[in-house]
Amino acid sequence: MTSEPRPSDFAQPAAQPDSVAAALNRLNDPEKRAQAKEALAVGQAMFGRGRYREAIDAFKLARSLSNPMSASGGEIQMWLVNAYVAAGDDESGLALCRKLILHPDLDTKQQSKRLLYILEAPQLEMKPEWVTQIPDLSELDDEKGHKAYVQTPKKPRRRKPKPEPEPLDLSQVNTADNQFVWIALIAIMLTLGGLFWLS
Questions:
Q1: Range of the domain at 63
Q2: Mean pLDDT for the chain?
Q3: Can you give the pTM of this predicted structure?
Q4: Could you tell me which residues belong to the region Disordered (predicted)?
Q5: More confident residue, 12 or 6
Protein backbone atom coordinates (compact mmCIF):
# COMPACT_ATOMS: atom_id res chain seq x y z
CA MET A 1 0.00 0.00 0.00
CA THR A 2 1.53 3.29 -1.05
CA SER A 3 1.33 6.21 1.27
CA GLU A 4 -0.44 9.30 0.03
CA PRO A 5 1.55 12.50 -0.28
CA ARG A 6 0.92 15.03 2.44
CA PRO A 7 1.11 18.81 2.22
CA SER A 8 4.41 18.72 4.13
CA ASP A 9 5.95 16.54 1.39
CA PHE A 10 5.96 19.43 -1.07
CA ALA A 11 8.72 21.97 -1.14
CA GLN A 12 7.68 25.29 0.31
CA PRO A 13 8.13 28.18 -2.12
CA ALA A 14 11.44 29.92 -1.63
CA ALA A 15 11.39 33.52 -0.47
CA GLN A 16 12.06 35.76 -3.46
CA PRO A 17 12.33 39.50 -3.80
CA ASP A 18 9.00 41.24 -4.33
CA SER A 19 9.77 42.39 -7.84
CA VAL A 20 7.24 42.01 -10.63
CA ALA A 21 9.64 39.96 -12.75
CA ALA A 22 10.34 37.54 -9.91
CA ALA A 23 6.62 37.14 -9.22
CA LEU A 24 5.87 36.46 -12.90
CA ASN A 25 8.68 33.92 -13.10
CA ARG A 26 7.33 32.16 -10.04
CA LEU A 27 3.77 32.08 -11.39
CA ASN A 28 4.75 30.91 -14.87
CA ASP A 29 7.08 28.13 -13.72
CA PRO A 30 5.63 24.82 -15.02
CA GLU A 31 7.15 22.92 -12.11
CA LYS A 32 5.34 25.17 -9.61
CA ARG A 33 2.07 24.74 -11.51
CA ALA A 34 2.48 20.96 -11.40
CA GLN A 35 3.20 21.10 -7.66
CA ALA A 36 0.13 23.32 -7.18
CA LYS A 37 -2.06 20.82 -9.05
CA GLU A 38 -0.68 17.97 -6.98
CA ALA A 39 -1.22 19.88 -3.73
CA LEU A 40 -4.79 20.65 -4.85
CA ALA A 41 -5.41 16.95 -5.52
CA VAL A 42 -4.02 16.04 -2.09
CA GLY A 43 -6.21 18.69 -0.47
CA GLN A 44 -9.30 17.40 -2.26
CA ALA A 45 -8.52 13.85 -1.14
CA MET A 46 -8.06 14.98 2.47
CA PHE A 47 -11.26 17.02 2.28
CA GLY A 48 -13.16 13.99 0.95
CA ARG A 49 -11.94 11.91 3.89
CA GLY A 50 -12.97 14.52 6.46
CA ARG A 51 -9.40 15.50 7.36
CA TYR A 52 -10.06 19.22 7.06
CA ARG A 53 -6.96 20.59 8.83
CA GLU A 54 -4.67 18.68 6.49
CA ALA A 55 -6.82 19.81 3.56
CA ILE A 56 -6.40 23.45 4.67
CA ASP A 57 -2.62 23.03 4.73
CA ALA A 58 -2.64 21.48 1.25
CA PHE A 59 -4.89 24.20 -0.18
CA LYS A 60 -2.74 26.94 1.35
CA LEU A 61 0.33 25.37 -0.20
CA ALA A 62 -1.41 25.09 -3.58
CA ARG A 63 -2.47 28.74 -3.34
CA SER A 64 1.10 29.84 -2.61
CA LEU A 65 2.39 27.87 -5.62
CA SER A 66 -0.17 29.24 -8.09
CA ASN A 67 -1.39 32.57 -9.34
CA PRO A 68 -4.22 33.48 -6.93
CA MET A 69 -5.84 35.68 -9.59
CA SER A 70 -6.11 32.90 -12.19
CA ALA A 71 -9.06 30.57 -12.65
CA SER A 72 -7.15 27.69 -11.04
CA GLY A 73 -6.11 29.98 -8.17
CA GLY A 74 -9.77 30.88 -7.67
CA GLU A 75 -10.73 27.21 -7.62
CA ILE A 76 -8.04 26.50 -5.02
CA GLN A 77 -9.30 29.36 -2.86
CA MET A 78 -12.92 28.15 -3.13
CA TRP A 79 -11.76 24.75 -1.87
CA LEU A 80 -9.94 26.56 0.93
CA VAL A 81 -13.16 28.38 1.91
CA ASN A 82 -15.03 25.07 2.07
CA ALA A 83 -12.26 23.49 4.13
CA TYR A 84 -12.25 26.41 6.59
CA VAL A 85 -16.01 26.13 7.08
CA ALA A 86 -15.91 22.33 7.38
CA ALA A 87 -13.15 22.60 10.01
CA GLY A 88 -15.28 25.03 12.03
CA ASP A 89 -13.27 28.17 11.23
CA ASP A 90 -16.25 30.09 9.86
CA GLU A 91 -14.66 33.53 10.24
CA SER A 92 -11.66 32.67 8.05
CA GLY A 93 -13.95 31.05 5.50
CA LEU A 94 -16.28 34.05 5.39
CA ALA A 95 -13.39 36.52 5.14
CA LEU A 96 -11.81 34.67 2.21
CA CYS A 97 -15.19 34.21 0.53
CA ARG A 98 -15.83 37.97 0.75
CA LYS A 99 -12.46 38.61 -0.92
CA LEU A 100 -13.29 36.16 -3.70
CA ILE A 101 -16.35 38.21 -4.68
CA LEU A 102 -13.86 40.65 -6.25
CA HIS A 103 -11.88 37.88 -8.02
CA PRO A 104 -11.17 38.56 -11.73
CA ASP A 105 -12.38 35.09 -12.81
CA LEU A 106 -16.13 35.18 -13.47
CA ASP A 107 -16.82 31.59 -12.34
CA THR A 108 -14.97 32.11 -9.07
CA LYS A 109 -16.83 35.38 -8.52
CA GLN A 110 -20.24 33.72 -9.07
CA GLN A 111 -19.43 30.69 -6.92
CA SER A 112 -18.19 32.87 -4.08
CA LYS A 113 -21.38 34.98 -4.19
CA ARG A 114 -23.53 31.84 -4.00
CA LEU A 115 -21.45 30.34 -1.21
CA LEU A 116 -21.40 33.60 0.75
CA TYR A 117 -25.20 33.79 0.47
CA ILE A 118 -25.43 30.29 1.97
CA LEU A 119 -22.85 30.93 4.69
CA GLU A 120 -24.45 34.20 5.81
CA ALA A 121 -27.97 32.77 5.90
CA PRO A 122 -29.56 32.87 9.35
CA GLN A 123 -29.85 29.64 11.30
CA LEU A 124 -33.33 28.16 11.33
CA GLU A 125 -35.00 27.46 14.65
CA MET A 126 -35.96 23.86 15.13
CA LYS A 127 -39.49 23.53 16.42
CA PRO A 128 -40.27 20.39 18.44
CA GLU A 129 -43.00 19.32 16.01
CA TRP A 130 -40.45 19.27 13.17
CA VAL A 131 -38.23 16.77 14.94
CA THR A 132 -38.98 13.07 15.15
CA GLN A 133 -37.83 11.48 18.39
CA ILE A 134 -36.25 8.08 17.93
CA PRO A 135 -36.78 5.82 20.95
CA ASP A 136 -33.73 4.44 22.73
CA LEU A 137 -33.74 0.70 22.16
CA SER A 138 -30.64 0.02 24.25
CA GLU A 139 -32.76 -0.35 27.40
CA LEU A 140 -34.65 -3.36 26.06
CA ASP A 141 -33.60 -6.73 27.38
CA ASP A 142 -31.77 -8.81 24.83
CA GLU A 143 -34.22 -11.62 25.25
CA LYS A 144 -37.32 -9.43 24.90
CA GLY A 145 -35.88 -7.48 22.00
CA HIS A 146 -34.87 -10.64 20.22
CA LYS A 147 -38.30 -12.19 20.54
CA ALA A 148 -40.09 -9.02 19.50
CA TYR A 149 -38.32 -8.79 16.15
CA VAL A 150 -38.10 -12.42 15.08
CA GLN A 151 -40.25 -13.35 12.12
CA THR A 152 -42.19 -16.54 12.35
CA PRO A 153 -41.40 -18.94 9.54
CA LYS A 154 -44.11 -19.04 6.92
CA LYS A 155 -45.76 -22.30 6.10
CA PRO A 156 -45.39 -23.24 2.48
CA ARG A 157 -48.63 -22.93 0.56
CA ARG A 158 -50.05 -25.94 -1.10
CA ARG A 159 -50.84 -25.34 -4.68
CA LYS A 160 -54.26 -26.42 -5.70
CA PRO A 161 -54.29 -28.43 -8.89
CA LYS A 162 -56.03 -26.63 -11.72
CA PRO A 163 -59.26 -28.31 -12.74
CA GLU A 164 -59.15 -29.81 -16.21
CA PRO A 165 -61.51 -28.17 -18.69
CA GLU A 166 -64.69 -30.06 -19.45
CA PRO A 167 -64.66 -31.89 -22.79
CA LEU A 168 -66.54 -30.07 -25.53
CA ASP A 169 -69.82 -31.69 -26.60
CA LEU A 170 -69.69 -31.71 -30.42
CA SER A 171 -73.42 -32.34 -30.71
CA GLN A 172 -74.07 -28.79 -29.48
CA VAL A 173 -71.70 -27.10 -31.97
CA ASN A 174 -73.44 -25.32 -34.88
CA THR A 175 -72.02 -26.96 -37.99
CA ALA A 176 -74.48 -25.40 -40.46
CA ASP A 177 -72.99 -23.44 -43.36
CA ASN A 178 -72.44 -19.84 -42.57
CA GLN A 179 -73.14 -17.27 -45.32
CA PHE A 180 -70.35 -15.04 -44.04
CA VAL A 181 -67.66 -17.58 -44.99
CA TRP A 182 -68.77 -17.52 -48.63
CA ILE A 183 -68.87 -13.73 -48.73
CA ALA A 184 -65.36 -13.53 -47.27
CA LEU A 185 -64.02 -16.05 -49.82
CA ILE A 186 -65.54 -14.09 -52.71
CA ALA A 187 -64.05 -10.83 -51.40
CA ILE A 188 -60.60 -12.43 -51.14
CA MET A 189 -60.85 -13.81 -54.68
CA LEU A 190 -61.88 -10.43 -56.07
CA THR A 191 -59.01 -8.70 -54.26
CA LEU A 192 -56.45 -11.21 -55.54
CA GLY A 193 -57.88 -11.01 -59.07
CA GLY A 194 -57.70 -7.21 -59.00
CA LEU A 195 -54.10 -7.27 -57.81
CA PHE A 196 -53.18 -9.80 -60.50
CA TRP A 197 -54.87 -7.70 -63.19
CA LEU A 198 -53.11 -4.46 -62.11
CA SER A 199 -49.67 -6.01 -61.95
A1: 18-119
A2: 81
A3: 0.53
A4: 142-170
A5: 6
